[in-house]
Write a structure and sequence with these properties.
19% strand, 2 domains, 134 residues, alpha+beta
Length: 134
Amino acid sequence: MTDLPEYYFRIRDNGAVVFRVDTENRMRRIEMSQIAVANVKNGEIKPHGEQELSDADRAEIERWLAARSAELEAREVDNILRMVDRLNLTATWAQQKASAEDLERVSDALLLAMHDLRSVLVRKKADKVKDAAE
């Protein structure tokens, strides 16, 4: 059997449910005991039930939280860059392939979303210029 990690993190929306992995039992089965819930948004670690977390448990969960936060941040930026690609591909589609019915179906939603995004970006850019001037 390959070496398994000591902890398993079941990803959920705002973090993970944390399990301790045990293979050192007489049946040689993998057993996972929930020990905590970790929240990526606020860094909170809540022990499960009456579970007492050791310093090693907390250190590993904190290490996971830091790595997960960095991963999510990188994904967010990557998703935005992919969205820029999609916008470019959408422009090509609209210009070369879309039927009048296709354009009628998507135009209002696209125009409103792009207008909203443009407004936010212009406002943020103006705030940055204003802050730099002060």
